[in-house]
């Protein structure tokens, strides 16, 4: 019995040893290599910035012909451009501009991080146009002899039913004589006139008497008789037709007309 037990133990030990040998001689597990984690992405490029000012502000007002200073500053930009007119510029700078009309300047900064813009408005005050020059005066024209005659020779007035020269008309008649003596080539007609009172025949005669009295006075003043014609219109040519003494006084007269 003892022998059997020992033999059984030995047999079990052999089986256990064989199992161990099988395990130790079997295929070995090789660990799997893993890839390293990817590096983190680079940080994004910073966005560009830019500021544009005109005389220190976002707006400026100037009179036409004046200059204004543009000032700008950009960061994180590869190119900086200002329009209209300046084109590509450095990242920072100043420039005097002289616009002739109102304008908005735009500054653009472009870099890896994108684009940025800023503006500055300049208002140009345009003065009103000067007033139009007045037209030149017409060329000076010397007055004609007829115009000089009418401007210097005065009508002589008479009292009712009279042909005598009134004292208040004497200076007027003397002035006529003085101008006629200064212009000896002027020939003229004295026209006698009356108001409507009296018959037509009577007034024609009275008008003739008045024109003759004036002629005689002028001849006495040195005016040649050959220069003077006389005529009477009586009551045919009144200057007014009102039945008042003031109107009738205007009709009792001796007119002067220059002969052609």
What is the CATH homologous superfamily assignment of the largest domain? OmpA-like domain
Q: What's the average pLDDT? A: 88
How would you spell out the order of helices and strands? Answer: HEEEEEEEEHEHEHEHE
β-strand number: 12
Total domains: 2
Coarse morphology: rod-shaped
Measured on Cα atoms, how large is the radius of gyration?
64 Å
pLDDT under 50 segments (min length 5)?
none
> Percent range for helical residues?
25-40%
Note the beta-strand portion: 25-35%
In CATH's first tier, which class of the largest domain applies? Alpha Beta
Report on the structure:
The protein has 260 residues and is an alpha+beta fold. The chain has two domains: 77 residues, Immunoglobulin-like, CATH 2.60.40; 114 residues, 60s Ribosomal Protein L30, Chain: A (2-Layer Sandwich), CATH 3.30.1330. Helices cover 29% and strands 29% of the residues. The chain contains five helices and twelve strands. Helix 4 links the parallel strand 10 and strand 11. The mean pLDDT is 88.
Mind sketching the topology for me?
Elements: H1 2-25, E1 49-54, E2 59-63, E3 68-75, E4 79-83, E5 87-89, E6 92-97, E7 103-111, E8 114-125, H2 145-152, E9 156-157, H3 167-182, E10 188-193, H4 200-220, E11 228-234, H5 245-251, E12 253-258
Parallel strand pairs: 2-8, 10-11
Antiparallel strand pairs: 1-3, 3-6, 4-5, 4-7, 7-8, 9-12, 10-12
